[in-house]
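Lab notebook, page 48
Experiment: co-folding of the full assembly
Goal: obtain a model of how the components sit together before planning crosslinking
Operator: M.T.
Materials (sequences as entered):
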Amino acid sequence: MTALERRCRWLLRAYPAWYRAERGDEMLGTLLEASTPNQSWPATHDARALILGGLRVRAWQHERQTAAASLRQAVLLAAVLDLAFWSAQDLRMWGYTFPPTMFAWMNLMIGLLTLAAMAGAWFGHRVVVVVVALVAVGLWVSQPPGDLLYTGGPPVLALTVLASLAALRARLPRAWTWLAGVWYLAFVLPPMFNATRPFGVWVAFAIVVGAIGWSVIDARLMLATTLVVAAIFGSAAVRFYAESGGQASAIPWDLWPWFTPALLGLVLAVVAIWRVRRQAVL
Amino acid sequence: MAEMREPTYFVLASLLDGPLHGYGIIKRAAELSGNRVRLATGILYTALDRLAAEGYVRLVREEIVNGRARRSYGLTDAGAAALRAEATRMAQAAEVVTGNRRVGMDAASGKLRTA
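Observation: model returned without errors.
Model output:
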């Protein structure tokens, strides 16, 4: 085995084992045929393409999906991540009072139904997902008007989006399950351990930064995470503004901690939409 | 028909004269593009995966050369039609600038015609 072949084989490890078993030999043959007689290292553009190509196969991006289908999946993931944030709050509320009040039981029910709808985005039958999501919407809407205005709006919107996309047969890839899990735990675990620092926010921030980097391979995660950032911070800004009595002059100074991430999230989401559409080109 | 990237266009164009294996496609695409498109092996196989999934190329032959699998790929009718459609789209776009030829697709044969 030559040094070039050994190095090419090493680079081919970027591809998953099942793909190498199917195509590895053929790709190695092509790499060696394309090489010059005394070449001992793969060309830079070949090395780069093998690493990116391998990661694309691992992200299941080697098979083309239309831009519309990719955008639907990204928005569905955004709805699920948004709901992870809100359902975590609902489930936490149940644990705050003992014995649980009627209000706490209601929160528990909403939280569990939301979790079921979220899981359904990956594994559920679409009719079941739509029904569960709509029942959860019904429970949210049945809450007192004040609660609905201040905390119910975003989850009701996210559940409606989830139900609509599930009805259109959108489904999330199983490879993304861990993302919702980490996101969910980031907002559930820290308060349980009385964490004073906003640990969950930092985890979410790390996921968003990672998703932006990963957009070279798959821009759907970037779109989903930036939409969630825009939704969570945007709704917080609107709530804060409403609570301040609608003083317009307060916006530039008091609301920048909410508006800035919301605006940044929206701008990055537009970039992500462009990238998703580019990646869908054959 | 979906818009195509340039490498994809030249992968399909390289198969117009008959089936080719991986390195053959790389060489032919470079020739056809005047050495502008230098397909890396990773890019070539990503393109072939997508084109095969779309039904634009198919596996024609598989042989063992120097102890390794070598597969040859050919253009399908759908692939040829997509290639012609992309050529027409680019010709029409070029006509906006050059403006001295009328280019279109013949409805009956599906082939590129110029007048």
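Interpretation: The beta strands of chain B are 20-21, 57-65, 68-75, 103-105, 112-114.
Next step: discuss with group before ordering constructs.
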